[in-house]
Structures are given as structure tokens and as C-alpha cells.
Amino acid sequence: MYHGRLYPNLDDLFEKGLVERGSVDKRTNSYALTDAGRDLLRGRIEWLADQAGLDVMEVDHRLANTEPVTKEGDD
């Protein structure tokens, strides 16, 4: 159903300036987030954290695979 969408989606993100494209070899591209991509992703994370009633710092810790932040009253 979604086969063949990865590279068109990456091309769209590249055209919007959200990822930069590099070359690994003649057949392989690499992709990395731009500052604009990070800002957009950060905004989405903040929105999702707000919807879930979480503090963004708690989400940051969980995403970084560090020890989860416990809230007062958690045992």
C-alpha cells in the first residue's frame, strides 16, 4: 500500500528545506535534518507533549534514552 513512498517523501522534505541530501556513493544518498527540520520537529514534539499532559523536558529525557523523569507522587 505504501511501497515506493520513502524516496518521494524524502524528496518533498528536501524541497521544503527540512532535510539536506548528501551522497554516500553513486547509488546511495544520505539525509540529515536541517535547522528548519529540527525546529518543525521540536514544535511537533512540544504539541504532542502538551496533548499528552507531559512536560517537554520529560519527553527530551525519554527520547535521549536517559533515566525517565519521575513526577512527584510517582513511586
UniProtKB/TrEMBL annotation:
One Pfam family hit: PadR
Gene3D superfamilies assigned: Winged helix-like DNA-binding domain superfamily/Winged helix DNA-binding domain (1.10.10.10)
Highest taxon of source: Archaea
Domain Transcription regulator PadR N-terminal: 3-42
InterPro entries: Tscrpt_reg_PadR_N, WH-like_DNA-bd_sf, WH_DNA-bd_sf
Annotated protein name in UniProt: Helix-turn-helix transcriptional regulator
Organism: Haloplanus litoreus
High-level lineage: Archaea, Methanobacteriati, Methanobacteriota, Stenosarchaea group, Halobacteria
